[in-house]
Amino acid sequence: MDPQTKDLKSIRNFYDSVYHKASKPYVKTSIHFRRLTSRVKINKKQRVLDVGCGAGQWLFAASRLGAIPYGIDLSEKAISVCRSVMPEGTFYVQAAETLPFEDNMFDLVSCLGALEHFVDPQASLKEMVRVAKNNAKFLLLVPNADFPTLRLGLYSGTHQVVAKEEVLNLKGWTKLFQDCGLEIRNRWRDLHVLSWSWIASQGPLFIPLRAAQALALAIWPLMWQYQVYHLCAVRR
Fold it and tell me: With CB atoms 3.0 to 4.6 Å apart as the test, which of 65, 96, 220, 228 could cross-link to 224 if both were Cys?
């Protein structure tokens, strides 16, 4: 078994048995994702592909506005949730490095908090460019290695780090996107942490700390953010 196949098997097992173990169907969209659909101007009949879609909450928000959802993820458990919530969608249990779609298919390609976990991020990005239309938008959410808490060693990454997690700073991500044929049109903070559900998610003892962190992210400059959204297009 080659190293990449071995890595994919290990990562798939983590997402099925740990990360998505408790994933289940849902009927509501978060305020954060509703705002995100507005920001990227989701329209009816747009084909939206989410790479590393997980249980599909972002695609669900887009589909509620009439977009046609497509998703891929390594986790069979996550994809089964997607299929139950969005039977009109198209979903595959698939690695991101080889997408099962024709060229020039999608109006919007997204990858939210997943690229850093892929075995080969560069190959995955090139595949996203291949399957996107020439005028497509790319919505990419990536972590930032210059996040002060990470740099000070007070934060070691998400619990997905046990599978794979490779974090770059904003300059490094910019170079990777450019090397794969993308140009950045806009960037902004990921402020989904400004919600009670996030602040209280680790229990009462952690509420003061998480509240302080959420407020800090709201005022820190982009270069210090934990995660940053990138809205990209194909380089001309």
Answer: 220
